[in-house]
Design brief:
The chain is an alpha/beta fold. It has one domain: UDP-N-acetylmuramoyl-L-alanine:D-glutamate ligase, CATH 3.40.1190.20. Helices cover 33% and strands 22% of the residues. It contains eleven helices and 13 strands. A nine-stranded mixed sheet has the order 5-4-1-8-9-10-11-12-13, sandwiched between helices. Its EC number is 2.7.1.-.
């Protein structure tokens, strides 16, 4: 296969600043300490981290015919990400965000949905898009053209071809479950945050949440718990929990997406599932230590070194 990792879905241009405690009133100006630009999104940030880890990566999604889209393509080129399947969508702007990072790392954002809603993988593009070992869809609920059945068709075809499938969402709400159900039956690894998983299931107990998702047909649930680590549950009854790394958080923008890419890196390397999650957590933790998605992630060697040497929190919530 040509690609190690293909990231389909939400690719966004982010402008970030910190620290922000409030928006200036009237026409006032507040000064900030840091400002950055980044590719982000549930597909975009994952694509960049996977490329930094040395995987051969393909990005699939939509951009507008604008300066933000130009910058995204240029930045992908910096990391060696293949963008042949990134579509310029007429009548759409590039999906873009202004991220106001708080002193504690939280990141309220102003977002323009843009071309993520407009791109579509045609029948003549399927073979190219699925020429990959790992197939990731990120941003379900934002892809208006793709969410109406096409994502499920691609995941089903990917599994038929023996491709490993992974799936993530973006700030899911209960009503998004109807979009996810057809996808979960063809997903090997579903990787929501605890907030997203609870919103989708309507449940609060983590074991119940995972079981609910497994009952939808997904092969395994990897639920990220922020500072409390991550938990793994699958249809074969395997379960384990792994604590988070101890870090000083700068910005949490893109942390879940970096986790997804780190997890995929572990799969690509043939690592154990525990190590896949630890690589995901190491990627996410490094991501959180700088302003903007993947700012501190540099290479696979550095991520593995971080994974092997960085202290972890005393326990996970389920330990």
């Amino acid at each position: 296969m040509t690609f190690d990792y293909t990231a389909v879905g939400f690719h966004t241009f982010d402008a970030l600043c910190r620290p922000v405690t409030q928006i200036p009133p009237n026409g006032d100006t507040y000064f900030v300490e840091d400002f950055a630009l980044a590719i982000s999104g549930a597909a975009g940030a994952a694509a960049v981290v996977a490329a930094k880890h040395g995987l051969k990566v393909q990005a699939v999604g939509g951009l507008g015919n604008d300066l933000m889209g130009d910058w995204v393509l240029r930045r992908y080129a910096d990391f060696g990400v293949d963008t042949e399947m990134m579509q310029r969508c007429p009548d759409f702007m590039t999906s873009s965000s202004i991220v106001t990072t708080r002193p504690d790392g939280q990141r309220p954002a102003l977002h323009k949905r843009g071309a993520t809603a407009g791109f579509y993988v045609g029948d003549d593009q399927v073979d190219r898009v699925l020429d990959t070992k790992i197939f990731h869809i990120g941003g379900v609920g934002l892809m208006d053209a793709m969410d109406n059945g096409r994502n499920a068709e691609l995941l089903e075809e990917a599994q038929k071809r023996g491709i490993t499938t992974t799936l993530d969402v973006f700030a899911s709400k209960a009503e998004d479950l109807k979009l996810l159900r057809p996808l979960l039956a063809h997903t090997d690894f579903f990787m929501p945050s605890e907030e997203e998983a609870m919103a989708l299931s309507g449940l609060s107990d983590f074991e119940d949440v995972c079981q609910f998702l497994l009952d939808q047909g997904v092969g395994a649930v990897v639920m990220t718990l922020g500072a409390e680590g991550a938990m793994y549950r699958d249809r074969q009854g395997r379960k384990f929990d792994i604590p988070a790394f101890q870090i000083d958080v700068v910005c949490t923008c893109g942390c879940g997406d970096a986790f997804n890419a780190g997890f995929a890196t572990g799969l690509h390397l043939g690592r154990s599932l525990e190590d896949c999650i630890r690589l995901g957590q190491a990627s996410s933790a490094q991501n959180a230590m700088g302003l903007g998605s993947q700012a501190v992630v540099t290479s696979l060697d550095d991520t593995i070194r971080f994974m092997e040497t960085q202290p972890v929190r005393a326990r996970s919530v389920h330990a």
